[in-house]
Amino acid sequence: MNAIFLMVVGLGAMALGYFLYSKFIAEKIFRLDPNFRTPAHEFEDGVDYVPTNKFVLWGHHFTSVAGAAPIVGPAIAVIWGWVPAFLWVTLGTIFFAGVHDAGAIWASNRNKAKSVGALTGDVVGARARSIFMIVIFLVLLMVNAVFAVVIAGLLTQFQTSVIPVWGAILVALIIGQLIYRKMMGLLTVSVVGVIALYALIWVGPSMPLALPEVFLGLTDKAQWIILLFVYAAIASLLPVWMLLQPRDYINGLQLFVGLGLLYGAVLISAPDVVAPAFNSDVPEGTPSLLPLLFVTIACGAISGFHGLVSSGTTSKQLDKETDLRFVGYFGAIGEGSLALAAIIAATAGFATLADWQAVYDGFGKGGVGAFVQGGANILSNGLGFNIELSQTILTVMAVLFAGTTMDTGLRLQRYIFQEWGSIYNIGWMQKAAPATLLAVGSCLVLAFGAGGDGSGGLLIWPLFGTTNQLLAGLTLLVITVMLARLGRPVYYTLLPLVFVLVMTVLALLIQLKGFYDQGNWFLFGLDLVVLVAAILVALECASTLGKLRTAKAGGQA
To answer: Family assignment (predicted)?
Structure first.
């Protein structure tokens, strides 16, 4: 099988999904109203609520949801073969992720930009809200703590990426001023910003930077983790127009250019897929494809974290309700295209099947390393770039995706603490600075609680896939209840949510047995908490749907 086939079929199907299916969902199911006054206008404060150009907002949304996960998940999941990963990414993007992301923005937009956790209290009930927000907090804790480890590892391993990654922050600050203070045209700013970012990537290989191997008893990775959280804390407090929006927007353009280069190299070099279509000879210890495929690939097919971004930051910046189709659904298409690129790089970026098998010699192998290694080979063969520059381009792509997700993730975690302060009437917790300190503190406790290297977040990472997919299913439940209350068709969200919840609960049960067999009582207990939370919230939502159906039947009678 040639990689061009995967590229053309995958991207073509996603394009049809956007032009046809998303149009149907927007007009017939969500019934978007261009005259609806969005929370960005109703509560405009210049900090969190800022009416935003849909292209800029798309950049924020796309890069916030597309962290390292749409690279890591697909590049691990191809161990079962490229066909299952390809089908789940393509169909999941069209029928699951796009509807989920756009639906979360719609639901939040129609409820004063409340997060999906707080919204659950209004739509379902206070008990479901309390349980849901615990699940949300766990997901954000995992994302922030582990993405810091991932970024620190890449900055340590690929020192040529340090200048481009940190230089992008300065570029973003300048762009924010040019757009909002100098009122410069978006096209001019976009061209200048992308040129600046790629100039930094060109400079990176000639000026590699590294932190001291040990400083004040901290390893270089631990130092990077602390610096990343200091930066994320500052970024979460700044007005969104100053850093978050322009950083995400310009990174989105740069990353799309990077994807264009990679797909262009595929067209030119036409590499063959050396990985098996269905891998019947998986390494010992590899779990079953069903249901683990559907939690291994989350971002890139459907991800609960997207619902947090959609209802946490994106809905507060929506200028017109009709913009959410482009921002939410097309944002999911962007991430799906990244996941597809990861599949191609991890299956067609190796010379032989033996080379591929040498990397995929155990479950969990591959990931970002396979994406960078395989993708760099494709770029080099197709466009003639040297390997070092190719690796820098792809590493910077991965780090910038992860970094923008971490920026947004910490801001979302701050919102969670502020919402808890509002729910339980704790005045000081409703303020931005104390809530940010609590968010950073909880992440650092997890990161450094198990040792001085800052990788403590990896302890609970085995539960990320299931917890994240549980969150996606519960978000779809909330959207479905809202649609039912409005008397609109629910099948387009109900069927995806049933599939996701069934696969997630099965995966949680399989993991529960695995943790029990290993004697890992910490993860066993945490898995049990997540499982019980899933069942309780699902029962609450099912009860609400049942009452709505009964009331509707009684009204018709």
So the answer is: Belongs to the peptide transporter carbon starvation (CstA) (TC 2.A.114) family.
